[in-house]
Write a structure and sequence with these properties.
Elements: H1 2-5, H2 9-20, H3 27-34, H4 41-52, E1 54-59, E2 67-69, H5 71-77, E3 85-90, H6 96-110, E4 119-124, H7 133-146, E5 152-156, H8 165-173, E6 179-182, E7 191-192, E8 198-201, E9 212-213, E10 221-224, H9 228-236, E11 244-245, E12 251-254, E13 271-272, E14 278-281, H10 285-293, E15 299-306, E16 311-319, H11 322-332, H12 338-347, E17 354-359, E18 377-380, E19 384-385, H13 386-392, E20 401-404, E21 407-408, E22 424-427, H14 433-446, E23 455-457, H15 465-475
Parallel strand pairs: 1-3, 3-4, 4-5, 5-6, 6-8, 7-9, 8-10, 10-12, 11-13, 12-14, 14-15, 17-18, 18-20, 19-21, 20-22, 22-23
Antiparallel strand pairs: 1-2, 15-16, 16-17
Helix pairs in contact: 2-4, 6-7, 7-8, 10-11
């Protein structure tokens, strides 16, 4: 504990923020966070702000609604004045309007107006409302009056479309919001953002009625979770044909539906992202056109390409010269090009400094990794045979980290050369007596070839593993963590 006590407060604050970022849903979960305050004076001084900053109100029981909240404890301890974030979690099937009305009632018992709350976080799973849109707007107005200083709004729901409550909240808070994340499809009618810097945008289809004016020059993070072309056209409506310059945008994430029938407009030609450093996209005609026609820097710090089933490609320090951009845009046009795209991105020298591939499915065995010479990290989620894996590794001549989620052991397998670059090896498999014997046999032959290994992970400690490590550590002291006194 002494070592943790010596950590700088800035480091501790970062750790505690990470621990408290996931909103509690029950009183028991929140009390787990309270344990941070009992370790020592330094921890208490650092953790007290994030722990007491959250008020949560949740309803998680399906048949008979049961509410959970920590507000009464905060009041008794005298810390309700520190509240900066309200979390509303609805995991039952009760009417949404009744849940929100109950939450407002709970808040008003303590004080009618919570000026200290600047973040509203809503998880409305399985939530629907039977109320009219007019009634929901009145409910949104009550929330706004109860918490007038909100500058950050987060909304997620299992329901795809908004009943009207979220759109009304966005209309009311828009002018003061710095961060707005709505994963629900919304149709705001009077949303004029003035200070917005981070946004998740998922607009409805009634483009004539939607009013969503954003200060494009102030945005630093933008996530488009709906139709890319429609969203960009909507955002550009206020700019009267001028070039839409996202002058401060650093991160752009686009997960757009694949709609091959809709004609691609000229909207992408007018887009400019001069400061963009991180781009996350899924393959589609529209993301292809965005990459090809918009103005982007010739180098990105990070490029991430996501698919639903096949996998995810991540490249760091990516060179997007005209030749690379044109070829990548061509491959992004259709998700079926994923394996060809992987071959191009991992087989092209000097395209990126660090390349990561997470496989959701496996391609044809004969072509697995044949052109992936510049891949540096590989994560394999589906089941893979040991012999296939042992044949794959030597093909990946720059691979330093390998993660396998479901290793299937063969009765017979052969080792070759080409494993010396691996620094991190994480193997997961079904733990049985047979697999334990198999992994010990594998380690006995493989570890002497892993001359650069720094980290080895197994799901459990095999039989006689400690004695094996002691012997191995004595023979190969260069491997960190495998010392004789293990």
């Amino acid at each position: 504990m002494a070592a943790f006590g010596k950590l700088p407060k800035r480091v501790l604050a970062g750790i505690f923020k990470h621990l408290t970022d996931e909103p509690p849903e029950t009183l028991a979960e929140w009390k787990q966070q309270l344990s941070l305050l009992s370790v020592c004076r330094s921890w208490r001084q650092t953790a007290i702000k994030p722990v007491y900053a959250i008020i949560f109100i949740s309803c998680t029981q399906a048949e008979t609604p049961k509410f959970h909240t920590n507000i009464d404890l905060l009041v008794r301890m005298g810390h309700h004045g520190n509240a900066r974030k309200l979390v509303l979690f609805m995991g039952c099937t009760m009417d949404l309007s009744k849940f929100i009305a109950k939450a407002i009632e709970v808040l008003s018992i303590v004080m009618p107006v919570w000026k200290s709350i600047d973040e509203l976080h809503m998880e409305l799973n399985a939530a629907k409302s039977m109320e009219s849109r007019g009634q929901l707007r009145k409910l949104a107005s009550r929330m706004f009056k109860s918490m007038p200083q909100v500058t950050q709004l987060y909304v997620n729901s299992e329901e795809d479309e908004d009943d009207g409550l979220v759109s009304a909240l966005i209309d009311l808070y828009a002018e003061q919001l710095v961060k707005c994340e709505s994963y629900v499809m919304v149709e705001p009618h009077a949303a004029v953002f003035k200070n917005l810097k981070q946004a998740v945008v998922r607009l409805g289809f009634d483009s004539e009625q939607i009013c969503c004016k954003m200060p494009l020059q102030k945005l630093t993070h933008l996530y488009i979770a709906g139709d890319l072309q429609q969203t960009m056209e909507q955002l550009q409506k206020e700019y009267s044909g001028e070039s839409a310059e996202f002058t401060q945008l650093k991160q752009l994430c686009i997960l757009t539906p694949v709609d091959e029938k809709k004609e691609v407009s000229r909207v992408f030609t007018d887009l400019s992202f001069p400061q963009l450093s991180v781009l996350r996209i899924n393959p589609s005609r529209k993301t292809s056109q965005l990459l090809l026609k918009s103005n982007m820097p010739s180098t990105l710090n990070k490029l991430e390409i996501l698919t639903l089933y096949m996998g995810t490609i991540v490249l760091y320090n990516v060179s997007l010269n005209e030749a690379n951009k044109t070829r990548l845009a061509e491959l992004l046009d259709n998700e079926s090009n994923f394996w060809t795209m992987a071959d191009y991105l991992f087989g092209t020298a000097q395209l990126s400094s660090h390349a990561v591939l997470t496989l959701g499915t496996l391609p044809q065995q004969g072509s697995l990794g044949a052109k992936w010479q510049h891949l540096t990290k590989l994560e394999v989620i589906p089941a893979i045979r040991l012999q296939t894996l042992l044949e794959l590794i030597p093909r990946l001549t720059e691979l330093t980290e390998l993660v396998v989620h479901d290793l299937q052991f063969d009765e017979e397998w052969e080792l070759s050369e080409g494993y010396e670059r691996l620094e991190i090896l994480r193997l997961n498999y079904e733990v049985t007596e047979t697999s334990q014997l198999a992994v010990m046999k594998l380690l006995a032959q493989l570890l002497p070839k892993l001359v650069s290994i720094e980290e080895l992970f197994l799901p459990t400690v095999p039989h006689d593993f400690y004695a094996f490590v002691q012997e191995y550590g004595a023979k190969y002291p260069h491997i960190a963590g495998f010392a004789p006194d293990f």
